[in-house]
């Protein structure tokens, strides 16, 4: 955990050496010393945290390292703040260099003192037997997991469908040795499901030779081989003989013992795909149907362990299954009628908080089984996660294993998730931008920061630390964190002084001493927050406001101007008008990289934002709701010289008026720009624009939208154009220059598709057409698109009565939506068309006649077709 902070600061020091090289002079060697010394310490820290987690002296030592790291970062940012790019080396800069050099000398003394203390108090390198022993709580927990691997719960609730499906895979006719991988979040029941299969009577009858081994993170291949041999019951050699054999000899011995025999082996709790790679040579493929079951938390391990792998993602329990499991553990039976009515209501509430995680439900049930009074249950509910942690070492340590296994670059990204409120649906795009603004995503050559951030997100999802909530148009739109993992992240963040949460409704989270030291502040609003900000750390990096209920908030902006290193300022749902001093003072926050006024009703931004030369994201999208407008988006006017914000990467709002952004070469997304404003922009310099949304308002005369300007955006991937009534599109033909285009949404009169649409849009994956008024059946042409996966044909897309899909058309289509269109009567689909179709959405009571085989295809989630934030305008 501390290694993540230290590693982050080491990277900052490296960047500082590169970016400020011309100013550093004699200070450069001191900065290099700091970087190298922290780099060496980093190796020790990672080992120390894992091996001696229960050592209070070590925890104090690690806390001191964290404090020094934060202070080093402050010194770097102060220097960068004072020495502006393009400055001459003046006497002022020399003075600041001298001041910085003195501070670094102080850090050198403190770091040397920490090294001395490490020796003085015996905090050695932890590479001896004592450091590697299983005497710690974590070691005991690992032993407990191994010891219980063969215990069988006579009554396992849930996963009947999963068990039957995987049992069929175990017993099928496939003769080649194959791997079945079960993956999912810690505590979800992967081992329980594997045991259910392992001890199944039909499995015992088929696989005479069976073995089970638990791997864990710090596995030893030689030890695993010996334990597998013992588990199989192979007795031709004594234990002493096995211990004298080399790893290769053990492999040969196990392979020879199994050759020609039908076997099943369970490799439980695998963390690296290399673990199976190091074992697989010992398991012969005798073409007799032998099987391997792997359980893991990590998707990549599950999917890439073997060339013949069936990866099964384990689901969470449904509410009815969760309640049944809870009753079994609490009351000793599954009859919910035996429970007192008030206790039952509280029980259901707490079970819902567990979100289908069996581990949490089992521990909760065990805790409440000894409590019969209503007041006792209420006390548990008030502090549910703390109670679960205190009652069982499994909860804290089982989840902590996932966190501890993260590389340092992912630890900070994961901890950042705890800033968001409980059960909050996190917008993934905004999360990526926040990570980048915080500096958690280091710049690498030829890599786009947003792509690297998405790789980090995908890895956290693959490690079962983030849950995908909604998908929209082929990509993940929102996510959430299970409450137990959020609680873990808050706990770890508090230890690191990484963040502080101010929640008026949970005073226990508003510890003033914590607020004065933490690096980030999340404020769950209502009322006056000036007192919270007044005691906050002056060197704070982020302030995020969450106000979903749009309560009236009192905010003193000059107070916020004291936060000179602020990188992120995000107002989510700020209600009412911003005070005038906002417009005068915001330019003082010159370190800002992310400024968000989403849902705040801001209609005009002050010229003072032009001083924010480091700004990467400006998000001012809002809706107004009053007696005359329902959810209508607020149009926003930007300062005329917005082109001065050279670092701008994302510009989000309903923009109107002149938009001088031609020189913003780093701009990647522009949402949403008025078509008239867009027509006056020269897009040739927008070389990195990947997402563009254009809209038009009603006007007296009809206009034709041409794609000539769009085709100059050579990296464009996502394009949305919404025309008002009476406007129309010109030919799509020019889009053939946009070879990266994968998402196209057109709202307006199109009339005709190009005959060579598969050549024009060869990589298109998602397409929406609304009010297109096509005169010819679009299916023959759309069916030629080789990459199309999602198709939405919305209101008035076609003027005819019949649709026809020929055989072999839509080769990759997975989801299709047809909106109500009273003119349509029949949809014919030949055999062989849409072979991958898994989701079909049609309006209820539609009179459209469709083939019988399509009626069994389920509708996709509504979120798959959420068409964007501007829909209420059209």
The gist of it:
Helix 1 (2-19) crosses helix 22, helix 3 runs parallel beside helix 5 and helix 4 (56-82) packs antiparallel against helix 5.
Descriptive terms for the model:
single chain, 874 residues, alpha/beta, Rossmann fold, 16-stranded parallel beta sheet, globular, plant defense, ADP binding, repeat, Rx_N
Report on this model:
The chain is an alpha/beta fold and 874 residues long. Among the domains are: 2-132, no CATH class; 139-313, P-loop containing nucleotide triphosphate hydrolases (Rossmann fold, 3-Layer(aba) Sandwich), CATH 3.40.50.300; 319-394; 406-490, Arc Repressor Mutant, subunit A (Orthogonal Bundle). It contains 32 helices and 32 strands. It has a 16-stranded parallel beta sheet that branches. A five-stranded parallel beta sheet has the order 2-3-4-1-5, sandwiched between helices. Helix 32 links the parallel strand 27 (766-770) and strand 28 (790-793). Helix 1 (2-19) runs antiparallel to helix 3, helix 11 runs parallel beside helix 13 (247-258) and helix 23 packs across helix 24 (449-462). The radius of gyration is 30 Å and the shape is globular. Keywords: Nucleotide-binding, Plant defense, Repeat. InterPro entries: Apaf_helical, Disease_R_plants, LRR_dom_sf, LRR_R13L4/SHOC2-like, NB-ARC, P-loop_NTPase, RX-like_CC, Rx_N. GO terms for molecular function: ADP binding. Residues 419-489 form the Disease resistance protein winged helix domain. Residues 5-87 form the Disease resistance N-terminal domain.
